[in-house]
Amino acid sequence: MSYYEKELEAQIISRHKGRPVAVFTEGQCPAVIKACFDLVSFVRPVFLVTEAAFRAALADIPEIDGEAAEFLISESAFVNIADRQDLLKEFAADYQKFCREKQCFVSFEQAKETVSKPGLFGIMAVRFGYADIVIGGIEQEPHQYGSHVRQLLSLDNNCISVGMALPEDPASLGMLLYADISKSKIASAEELSETAWDSAGVIRELLPPVSKINVVFISGGYGLGTESEGETVAIQAAAAFASAALGRLAEDERKFSNIVYAGSLCLEEYFRWKADGFSSLRPPLPLVRRGLDVNAPCLFVSPYFDLVHALYREMTFSKEVLTGSILCGVGAQSVDMLGHADGKSLVLSVKLLLCRLLSRPHYFLCRCGTFFPEHHLAVVETDAASTKVSVCRGREVVFTKVIEHGEALEPYSGLAVSAQTDMRLDRALEALENSKTALELIEAVVCGCSVIGPVSSGVYRVNQALYDETYRGDWGEYAENLGILVGKNIADTLQIEAYIVNPDTVDESSPLAGTVGIKGIQRRCISRALPMIYACRLYAAAQRTFWEKLNLICAHIDGQVSIAAYKRGFYVDGNNILDGDGPFGLASCGSLPTGAVVDICFSGQYTHGQLKELYRSEGGLKSLLGVSDIESAERMYSEGNAEAVKALDSMAYGIAKAISALWPVFEGEPIGGIILLGRAAAGENLVKQIKRFLQGLNVNIAVYADNFELEAMTDGVARCLDGRAPIKNYVCRL
Prior knowledge:
By secondary structure, the chain is of the alpha/beta class. Strand 13 and strand 14 form a beta hairpin.
């Protein structure tokens, strides 16, 4: 993987909003298929071919790994365009209207035939919001593809083509970048200036902000406008470029700093320089003589339609460079490969486009239900003080309400937690009825829960046995388990099913893991299985495989710290956060010296309940520093507070030690990765220290600073409703 791809991947992960739906209009092209093995971690591919045709194309690529191929197929959608008459009619009517507005009449049948071509079909899918991006222009009408994108997706009428030639080593001398304003006329000076700034913003995604970017305008000649006209536009554009600098810096100083105007270059000078040593990636000699910084990359901006495309095609003959090309502009969510069937270029281009797409502050991913199943699910989560009700449509949360119960809980003081069921149920149903959601569309209710009987991982139907055990409090009185009671009653009211997903008591460990040195005491695995298993799936997807194929260690770092070992999809060992086992966290004390625990128990200072409260929620950083949020602790650490440095470093040490202690679980098998997640995974110093303590293990460490609660619950049930995973019937394993 190139330096640029690594940089882009880091930015995409940091801006995580889910995987955009990407339509690949040339699903049987070998370069596209190869590229998708690298892209499936970041997009949900839609191939405009049947699955059988795609598999046949795969068979013709001998170097394709079979396991990776099955993973790609499982994550993709396949569309036979002729079978989607619903979309063809919708697209044709819109295309006919579009042509009419352009003073060009086409019949409905002609429009339907036009939009049935893969390139147009993919573009229209993005135009209608059924997909996020479209990729084409390699084999199918490569010249017309870009034109159609500009016409149908460029809502701001300022679509920019950006071509890149990047040295394999980013530290080597020079870099060539091209941009043009995609219009069929010579651009004005203002348009050229705007294009230069926007193009430089694209390139900044590939380079650190300290890097300088030389902006060079190509002016006139060779029948593409008179020399004087080109020179005039270039001079005026330079002035407009300078006057816009302050505004751009105010908009985003990081992105637009160190971008400078470096002069103009007429085509005659350009081609003379090209003939003298184009492939060296050195800046043009005429500009060097004018004082150009030779160590900075050059961004060439052209006011002429398709001129840059011609220059780009010549540029990509060099074997010294990585290449890419994207179309940018509001609505222009497309990669145009300009007839180049190069898998590496496609991967780079798509990642760059994703980076820009996900960086838009108000951009929301499309509804994926057109090409992927999209389920309506109600989610019920409870805690001691509130009930949270959400409605999700696919990956979109269409409604959420947190009901604070406050004084309504007073009559239930001293009673079993289950006594609150009816009160919470009434409030939850009221919230759903006021949600403006068509309740008949809801397919299932997903219930939050905490400690139940030990089970294997997966999705469980809330049957009568689980409901009764929870109502009686067989496994303890936990307000979080009210999600089962309230959710089941909502499901019964709507005449649908209720489910739970990976409760805290997922335990698939062997007797070796549960046996301790006092007869009659058994160690149990109780951890944050829900977000941890979801994070394992995310990590496996990033490795282009199924999590059932990997050995992983996962640490969920929050108020408490869960450490678990997953052996090819099974939870084989982990700590018990309910009893304070493991490293200390933001508010839990973790494992303590047994003798000291015995002493404090008989000190007379604490009651039984106070002691449990102490080790569950009054320990960790809360006890050591007086704060229980990672932001405050990190701020104290960065300010040099000695106690904070000692506490966070000790926390990191304990987590790293607990992770390494799980190595024997895998009996010599290789470890596929270590995953850190949870609120505290956002702590830069904490994570840095954990990585330092584990560096000798030589294992990849992934960080997800999220709890993934809602995503994990809805994803688990959706997988079952799609038929990709079984729905289990709850039976306690004890």
